[in-house]
Amino acid sequence: MRREAQICDTEFDFVLVLSGGSELTADMVDKLFEAGCEDATPSVSYGRVWLEFTRIASSYQEAVLSAIRDVRKANIGLDVYQIDDCSLVTQAEIARKIQKSPQYVYQLMTGDRGPGGFPPPVCHLTVNTLLWQWCAVSSWLCANNIIKPALVEQAEVTYAINRALEQLHRCGGKESDKRFQELEKAVTAG
Fold this sequence. Notes:
Layout: E1 10-19, H1 26-37, E2 40-45, E3 48-57, H2 60-74, E4 79-83, E5 88-89, H3 91-98, H4 102-110, E6 123-126, E7 129-133, H5 134-143, H6 149-171, H7 176-189
Antiparallel strand pairs: 1-3, 1-4, 2-3, 5-7, 6-7
């Protein structure tokens, strides 16, 4: 059962990608909801299980970590693989994330608008499609008062949790619960 919302709580939207299976039965969905995932919309696409959350918490980090705990508590044979967050973004995705036009973002990138010094792309998907690291872009946007610090914090928390989950999956084994507790402590400590 979800705790009552406090005055300073905020609604956070995020998606958890699950591993360990490619289907969700009605029984699995019931177990997820009973374990506390009643604020998630489950789906399966291209053999991957997704849980789209709208969770109320005092911080993005608390929302995500409590959702991961709830998925693990459901004990359905699936585990959280990662937070679905494309850390590599196109110009159009940057515009969507900051709720501005692609032209505005292009002008920031070229220095025609803003202070200049926009982070360079990290790779080329195609000749005309460049990719930027969202953490670097969001930090630059925040430093130049274009977005609020909360977006940078979410990008950094997502990156840290995904790296910790990657480490957890690499180690695997019987001590998964203990390793998850260590993951929570490491992410919480910053």
